[in-house]
Amino acid sequence: MLRQLIGPDNMIEFPNHSRSYDRTRRAVRFWGHDSAIEASFFINENALKRIQPDIGYDESGFLRAFDSNRDLICAAAAKVYVRGSRGSYDLLADNF
C-alpha cells in the first residue's frame, strides 16, 4: 500500500485499487482516503501519454498505463492533495 505524508499531520492513502475511465472527462478516475474522507482524483489522457508515450490511445490503453504507473501517479496525487480542500483533484501532464 502506498502511503505519502503531506505536511506534519496530513496523510492520504490509496488502498483502493479500483479505477475507471471517465469518457466525459477523458481521464482515469481513482480514489484516495484521508481517515474517513474520500477524495476523487482524475488523471487526464495527456498526463498518461506523458508518463507512458507508447500506450494505446483508447480506454484499455489508458487503464493499462494507469496500472503500470500507479505508484508514480499516487505520489503525484498526494502532492496535489490538500486536506478538506475539495472533493476532487485533477492531475495534468505538468504534474509529471
From TrEMBL:
A Pfam family assignment: DUF1488
Name of this chain's protein: DUF1488 domain-containing protein
